[in-house]
Each structure stands twice: as structure tokens, then as C-alpha cells.
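BUG: 3D viewer hangs when loading the predicted structure for this chain

Environment: internal workstation, default settings.
Expected: structure renders.
Actual: progress bar stalls at 90%.

Input used:
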Amino acid sequence: MKKIDIACIIDDDPIFVFGTKRIMQIANFCNGFLVFHNGKEAYDSLRAIILAGEKLPDLILLDLNMPIWDGWHFLDEFTQIPIEKPVTLYIVTSSIDPEDTERAKSYEIVSNYLVKPIKMDDLKKIMAD
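C-alpha cells produced before the viewer hung:
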């Protein structure tokens, strides 16, 4: 299993963020975290990282339902930025709406769609990919 250098969590729920970071630490999943509380904040920061030529996260865990910019808005904007190194992106949401799972498939960058809460087995599958 490959350890991830930087994991990015884009989610407005502090309990989910805390729990996910804790599970990642227990699993020795990654070396560091970037956490953003809405899609706009994440987009602005990640775009600045790309433009500065700095290292992007290896993995992005994206919630769909957030204030300011939701996950869909983030995806629509983020996919317009030319990126040299591929980023693995998982949607991690409480939505079980079949329309959301189908819509997620329309984005080439989306690797998978996970329903909250994220579990240790989910992290192990991500590490194995």
C-alpha cells in the first residue's frame, strides 16, 4: 500500500473533518493535510498552489453539500485549470441520490463516490489503488 503525501479534505462539517483526519492518522495514510471548508476556499487555494508551481495534494476528498460553493461548483471550476500531475479525487458525501452518483461519473477526475462516514476499509482501498 502506498502512503499518500498530502491529503486534501474539502468539507464544512468539523466533526467529519476531525474523524477523517483521525482515521487517516491511525492508518498512517498520509504525511499531511490541507483542509478547506467550502469549494470556493479550496479552489482559490489550490489554484494558487498550481500557479505557483507548488505540490498539489495527491488526494482530494470532496463533499457535495457545502455553503458558498458546493462540490459541483468546485468540480466545474477546478477541472478548467490545466494540471500537469494527476490528482485523485473522491466524492465523500451523505447524498445517496442516484442523480448525484450518475453526475459524478460525468467528471473524469472523480475516481469514486463514497457515502459518509468514511471507514478504515475505504482508506485501505484508496491506498491500494
